[in-house]
Amino acid sequence: MSGLPEEHLRYPFRRHGMDHDRYDWSILPRRKPVAWPDGARVALWITVSLQWFPINMAGKPFKPPGAMQTAYPDLRHYTLRDYGNRVGIWRIMRLLDGLGIRASAAVNGAVAARIPSLLQACEQRGWEIIAHGQDMDHLHYEGLPVEQERAQIATTLECLKRVARTPIRGWLSPAKSQSNATLDLIAEAGLDYCCDWVNDDMPYPMRTKAGPITAMPHPSDVDDYFVLVQNHLSEDDFTHTLTDHFDLLWDEAATQGGRVMAISLHPWVIGQPYRISALEKALKHILSRRGVWAATGAEILDAWKAQQ
Amino acid sequence: MAWRDPGYYDYLPYNETRPKITWPNGARVAFWVAPNIEFYELDPPKNPARAAWSRPQPDVLAYSYRDYGNRAGFWRMLEVFDRCGMRGSVSLNVAMCEHHPEIIEECAKRGWEFYSHGTYNTRYMFGMTEAQEREVIQDSIDTIRKHTGQKLDGWLAPALTYTERTLDLVADMGLTYVCDLFHDDQPSPVKTRSGTLVSIPYSLEMNDTIAYNVNQVGPRAYGEIIRRQFDRLYEEGAESGTVMCIPLHPYLIGWPYRLKAFEEALRYITSHDKVWLATGREIAAHFTKHHLEAFKEASVPVGDAP
Q: Are A118 and A286 in contact, with CB atoms under 8 Å apart?
């Protein structure tokens, strides 16, 4: 038998640190502690994804979470995703307004073009707008010609900037999928931070060909889709996920400095009548503690950067 | 011709005919925890039998998810072990010694055991020649010796990937126990071309990867199944010593929302008095010295299938 090619027993990146140069190896509890405004322990960052899944989506090179599932035309999943932008988001806004929380809306360019009033409603509440790609059928992946990827980013930002009155500083790739060029291209487009990498609980610097960009902590685990849809857990489990997560970060911050708790929401998931109270309970628990700073991504980024 | 049965062990029913196991100090359960300290490569060579990542390279979501364990999760998990007085038996991708020696140092200074989980969790054994497999095993022996001073005794194949000769080579190269077989709640003899290895129960059911990702168990329910597993093994251990293992991954257990429920379950176990808080090596050595021969003698070959 011939066995595996020689390269399988060669390790060109076996060295101290990472096996690539995008960022440095860094140990969370050994970093200089970060102080949030007013001595807060935890920066609470809620992101709400406003997405459009075209009904004829190709799902290339893979189907993103939330994609159409039946043969064409999949009215069932198309309209349920649309429910998020018609109904679910307003239920979320009402809840967050009542609690005095401003979120960051991660918006597909197509949503800004199709429903500009939705983006305006976010900004009227003081929410931040984050670029979330063109739509859920325009993934960024290796193999996509770089000019095409650059154009997708440009189209996204054009659609958002046509409506938005505040600067667009953050980027969340659809399905958190990137090519090897995505970080370079979003930095080149002038964006300050990226939410795709889930390896940290704090911001950290990344390198691109167009200068530095900041990775913001945006875990895929503390996410309504992950808990409720992908893992089929209960609404109470979602509440406990958020409260247990918060409690540990809040404790940790007492000795290690400020932490970020990022909660990723999808209006077509958490915006259902039977689910919204799971979020409400968790947020009330979180806000009942001293030292919680509810902020947008850009505000957290600026406070962190000022201390680096 | 491919195996129909790997032929690693004979039949030995879990009933009153099985030789009795006694653990040190009259313990009922030998309890060990096996953190998988792993490095996953962003762009490894593709093994013909298995892709490292489900998405096209670079799979930044899956890669960064695992990197979280080394940057953040490990350090929280370590505090939990310290608070519960538990030592780990590290299932180690040995390239971690080069990539993140800071982690190895923390484990070593606490007297944790290191055993091998291959070189990287993105390099698979499927399709290797004997010489290639020997090279990988030797790399583990040498790297663990060089960075920790420890002799390598245990093997858990990288990402649970094998050839038909893996366990033969592991035995031939001087290791003493394996964690790759899931056929029993007690240690048992494993027949290889180069003599006998001991299989130590490692439990996929208690493994955080299987619990969270495959069985989709929530964090609090994970704490509950750990307690139930322990309660039954503790009860049965009054008759003959049992083994309980919790295999962990810092990139999973180290999430803030999972850790508290796990710590409560771990403390529940470590606070019982008839529990031997052991390492894999200690369990294998005790079993080999006191019970291996009796287990071999009591085992019965299985018949030929039609």
A: no
Interface test with A, best of B64, B106, B146 (most A CBs within 10 A): B64
Dihedrals φ, ψ of A265, to 5°? -120, 150
Helices (H) and strands (E) in chain A — how many of each? 11, 9
Q: Give, as one character, the DSSP assignment of residue B210.
A: I
Instruction: Give Rg (Cα) of chain A.
Output: 20
3-state secondary structure of B34: strand
What is the signed CA dihedral for B209, B212, B213, B215, rounded to 10 degrees? 110
Contacts of A242 in chain B (CB under 8 A): 257
> For chain A, what's the residue count?
308
ipTM greater than cut 0.90: yes
Q: Which of B54, B68, B74 to mutate to test the interface with A (most CBs of A within 10 A)?
A: B68
Tokens at A91, concatenated:
């239920």
A100 strand-pairing partners: none
- Tell me: the pLDDT tens digits for B95-143? 999 999 999 999 999 999 999 999 999 999 999 999 999 999 999 999 9
Residue A231: which of B123, B127, B216 has the nearest Cβ? Answer: B216
- For residue B209, with 0-12 CB atoms within 10 Å meaning exposed, 13-18 middle and 19 or more buried, which class applies? middle
Q: Is the full-model pTM beyond 0.95?
A: yes
Nearest CA in chain B to A261: B256
Q: Angle, to 10 degrees, between the axis of helix A89-99 and the axis of helix A273-287?
A: 20
User: What's the rounded Cα separation, in Å, for the pair A298 and A104?
Assistant: 9
